[in-house]
Amino acid sequence: MISVRAVNTCSIFRSSPPVSSFRFRFNKHLRTNTSSFHYDRYSKSGSGFPTFRFDLPILGHGDVRSYSLQSFVDTVFEELTSNHKRKRQGICSAIKLKTGGEVLDDKPVNQAVEKGLLVEFKKDSERVLLAVVQRRDGKKNWMVYDQNGATSSIKPQQITYIVPGVDNFDQTQISSFIQKAQQNLDTSLLEFAWIELLEKNKSVTPEELAEMIFGSVEPLESYCAHLLLSKDDLYFTVQETKGSRSLYGPRPTVQVEELMRRKLAKEAAEKELQEFVQLLTSAKAMPSNAKPPKTSWVVEEKIRCKIESLEAYAIDACKSNDEKRIAGMILTAMGMGKTASSALNLLIDIGYFPVHVNLDMLKLNIHTDHPDEIISAAEDLLSEPINRKDLTHLKVYAIDVDEADELDDALSATRLQDGRIKVWIHVADPTQYVQPGSKVDREAMRRGTSVFLPTATYPMFPEKLAMEGMSLKQGEVCNALTVSVILHSDGCIAEYSVNNSIIKPTYMLTYESASELLHMNLEEEAELKLLSEAASLRLQWRREQGAVDTATIETRIKVPNPEDPEPSINLYVENQADPAMRLVSEMMLLCGEAIATFGSCNNIPLPYRGQPQSNIDVSAFAHLPEGPVRSLAMVRIMRGAEIDLRKPIRHGILGLPGYVQFTSPIRRYLDLLAHYQVKAVLRGDSPPLSAGQLEGMASLVNMQTRVVRRLCSSSLQYWIIEFLRRQPKEKKYRALILRFIKDRVAALLLVEVGLQASAWVSLGTQIGDEVQVRVEEAHPRDDIISLKEVVV
Fold this sequence. Notes:
Layout (H helix, E strand, L loop, with lengths): L1 E6 L2 E6 L6 E5 L9 E9 L5 E8 L6 E5 H26 L23 E5 L5 E10 L3 E6 L4 E4 L4 E4 L11 H10 L4 H13 L5 H9 L4 H13 L4 E7 L2 E6 L2 H33 L15 H14 L6 H13 L6 H10 L9 H5 L8 H10 L7 E2 L6 E4 L8 E7 L5 E8 L10 H9 L3 E2 L4 E2 L4 H8 L7 E10 L5 E11 L3 E4 H10 L5 H19 L8 E6 L11 E6 L3 H23 L6 E3 L17 H8 L6 E3 L24 H15 L7 H36 L5 E11 L2 E6 L4 E6 L9 E10 L4 E6 L3
Parallel strand pairs: 1-3, 14-21, 15-22
Antiparallel strand pairs: 1-2, 4-5, 5-6, 7-8, 7-11, 8-9, 9-10, 12-13, 16-17, 17-20, 18-19, 20-21, 23-24, 25-26, 27-28, 27-30, 28-29, 30-31
Helix pairs in contact: 2-5, 4-5, 7-8, 7-9, 15-16
């Protein structure tokens, strides 16, 4: 780029590598001599620069001479040097430099503060103001009248510039002076000065820069030059400062190029941010049913990165400071606070998140979809057969919740000729299709368990494999692993066997329908009655072995349309002491005891579960009403469960000599591990996994299972509170007093919804009493529920 600036009979010439454009600038405020300029863009000199011819009037004469590029430069530089020397003394006089009669080159010399001077000072970390000095304030400070009409006391250190050539400035003209200065600021002038000074390796003061680019050191021009230099972050840098005087030096070319690159990148990023903010603003304004789909935000890379930064910010999961910075910039640009809740609300407002998004699922990084390679591998497994014992003649009951997708277990029973009851616990057999260490197995281990949330179910296995191959289905021949047990009259195990089998489930019952059938006592459903009888025998026997009854109430919630702003909520509260639930629970425990015995007899490493006897004196809780209050009180003092991978250990709470969870291999990975081990022994092979291998795998799986359990608990709590939030404010709820936390603040169990909360209760009420409460506040996102007792 070639640039020429004519200033008061003095031209400043700048040159840099040639480009296809040429700029010729004139200061419209100053007089200039007329000149003509010719540029042949296609003619190059031997040095590789374009050939120029300038027709300029001879300074002080009327003649016109033609100059070549080189001669023109030499002529201008000679006159510039001469002119610079002539102006030097004038500059020093104008700014009142006190140098002892000498002019000091390239050294900033501080100017004394006096009344009437026009000064720039730093008001605070962000504001710089212009003011007129009024008078002294003490020994060192000065009172000033600033551009905003305010009078204040400042320290000399606050002064950043003293405008030269001013003795008694009219304070009413400060605003006008600032306005004129702003109109004269042309940052492109700095580029010309930078090239000149860089070539000569010279530094410059604001007044010298004013002489160079404006041809004057008048107050206005000097202040303009100061503003250009002090605000510049590209061409110049401060070399030395003394009081209010600074000396600036030109940056090296390499540094300027790098700063320019950064500046352009910053400008591009700011433009990109503004475009993104416009997208967000537009999406926020759209009605709920017309907002952009979530997929539209992740198509373009630059938009996807910003959305992902907001998402990470919303769940406190930013992976880098850059991600946090981007999210903060977006929120600030949107006029929102830089908080996780702000990011969450923004993502909800644009339709990226549903109103009731499950944040815990995002925070815990729960996998909801199976990779394509796992799905493909699962489909390949569906064709593998195995020889099995035919039990299709048995009447088979599968009892589960009504919305169960994966059916792991079913039951059969008969009475033998000697009067004893024989039961069959049929368990789904996923190990027919999945082998230890396979792709599908590794993915199942990574997940650890299926995830059952009010809004959705995320299976441990790919859905097609779980539903079409593994799950039990009514009226169809299904593969199973069957544990058959003959009970003594007191409920203990007399005989047992474990076999690969095929069954044909007769009924798929919900707990409600199974309880209804039991209550009806139909003769044609004698097998169901036998199962109930067997369950009663087992419960009695376990209690004799020291088992502690911890049956309480359990809440289930299903939200069929969670993406809707106001989805429907189906809430069920189930009593674990219900006959059908007791029946299923006892049969599962019976199966677990039989497998533990089988493992012990065959020396099989298995995840044997136990719980040391807590020495719970049940009689100490006899004063509490039977049911949730007593059960929850005993659970609070129980010790944690343990796992032994080599031999059975007593489970004191269940009253069993040994126990292995075995009945949910489609849903729980540790159950699947037990199936691998047992199935190998049934084939006559050694168990595929040693106790050491099981220990490492169990540790990882239990860690993931705890994460999922926490997620399920928080999700259930969220939807119970949301359910309560929607109820009429005047609605009353029954609440059982579980215990007193402090003074009259009690832990309560809301019977109708199965939620534990706290509230102040009246004098005279005791643990186990029932009170009535009303919901004062309910905020599911903040996990807040406030209750108030209703005193009758």
